[in-house]
């Protein structure tokens, strides 16, 4: 199963009324469950398709939690959420500039960040042309499935 297929399944599962889903294939098993405090997809076994690895940036010390403030005030704009559980990295390496910053205009397919899951670096690309209004997570912060990462305005 390819990473894009897993992301799409996770997105659909998140919006569905199902509480639990388990998929078994030859060398692959995927189990997702909702409920409790933190819904999270769980992948086991050896995946068939491996995403392109990217150099792991050193974790930065997260600043004050911007997501807490965002949770208290209503957000104006569209939200881009995390398609998986992992660690958010704003740049491809510790000495590189961030992929995007507030105010940037991005094109469909342009990388927004890296999400590390199980030592695999996954680039999160923009699914549409947009302007970054706000970044809701800090570099090196752990993120859950469907956690809001960016507030954007579609262009």
In words, what does this structure look like?
The chain has 2 helices and 11 strands, in the order αβββαββββββββ. It has helices at 3-15, 66-72; strands spanning 20-24, 29-33, 40-44, 78-81, 86-89, 105-106, 111-117, 120-125, 130-135, 142-143, 148-154. The strands form 3 sheets. A 4-stranded antiparallel β-sheet has the order 4-11-9-6, with no helix packed on it. The protein has a 4-stranded antiparallel β-sheet with strand order 8-7-5-10, with no helix packed on it. Strands 1-2-3 form a 3-stranded antiparallel β-sheet, with no helix packed on it. Strand 2 and strand 3 (40-44) form a beta hairpin. The protein is globular. It starts with a helix and ends with a strand.
* Poorly predicted regions: 61-71
Strand numbers in spatial order across the main sheet: 4-11-9-6
Instruction: Summarize the helix and strand pattern as letters.
Output: HEEEHEEEEEEEE
What is the global morphology?
globular
Average pLDDT reading: 78
End-to-end gap: 32 Å
- What's the helix count? 2
Strand content: 25-35%
């Amino acid at each position: 199963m390819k990473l894009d297929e897993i992301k799409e399944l996770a997105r659909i599962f998140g919006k569905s009324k199902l509480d639990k889903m388990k998929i078994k294939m030859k060398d692959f098993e995927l189990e997702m469950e909702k409920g409790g405090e933190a819904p999270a997809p769980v992948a086991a076994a050896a995946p068939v398709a491996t995403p392109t690895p990217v150099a792991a940036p050193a974790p930065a010390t997260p600043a004050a939690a911007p997501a807490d403030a965002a949770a208290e005030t209503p957000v104006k704009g569209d939200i881009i959420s995390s398609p998986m559980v992992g660690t958010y990295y704003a740049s491809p390496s510790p000495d590189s500039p961030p992929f995007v910053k507030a105010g940037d205009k991005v094109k469909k397919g342009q990388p927004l960040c890296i999400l590390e899951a199980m030592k695999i670096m996954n680039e999160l690309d923009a699914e549409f042309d947009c302007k970054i209004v706000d970044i809701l997570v800090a570099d090196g912060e752990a993120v859950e499935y469907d956690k809001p990462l960016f507030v954007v305005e579609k262009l």
